Amino acid sequence: MSEVAPSFRPIEAIERDFVEVRTATLPPQPALDNKFERLWDELNGAAAHLLPDESGMPYLALLRLLQDEFDRLKRNRYLAKLSGIRWEPRA
């Protein structure tokens, strides 16, 4: 029995979603976290499956950018909480 290779969204489509998350003002913080988590899971799955081949490299590169952005947002939220400022994602 032959295995059917899973299909992944094109990297350009995921990049568009990432840009949308970075620039959109999403309602509450959990919505932003959930969107990041879904994109991270999607990118991680594609990169893990495709990585032995060079076709996985763009997914891995975008995954790294996504993680860096998520870490930056978490750090800003933490610093705002320490200073008593209500932090909102940038528009």
The gist of it:
This protein has one domain. Helices cover about 70% and strands about 0% of the residues.
Describe the structure.
The chain has 91 residues and is mostly helical. It has one domain (11-20, 28-83). 68% of the residues lie in helices and 0% in strands. It contains 3 helices and no strands. The protein has helices spanning 11-23, 29-50, 57-83. The longest helix has 27 residues, at 57-83. It is elongated, with a radius of gyration of 16 Å.
Question: Tally of extended strands?
Answer: 0
Instruction: Tell me the series of helices and strands, N- to C-terminal.
Output: HHH
Shape: elongated
Which structural class fits the helix and strand makeup?
A: mainly alpha
Q: What is the gyration radius calculated from CA atoms? A: 16 Å
Index terms:
single chain, 91 residues, 3 helices
Q: What topology does this entry show?
A:
Layout (H helix, E strand, L loop, with lengths): L10 H13 L5 H22 L6 H27 L8
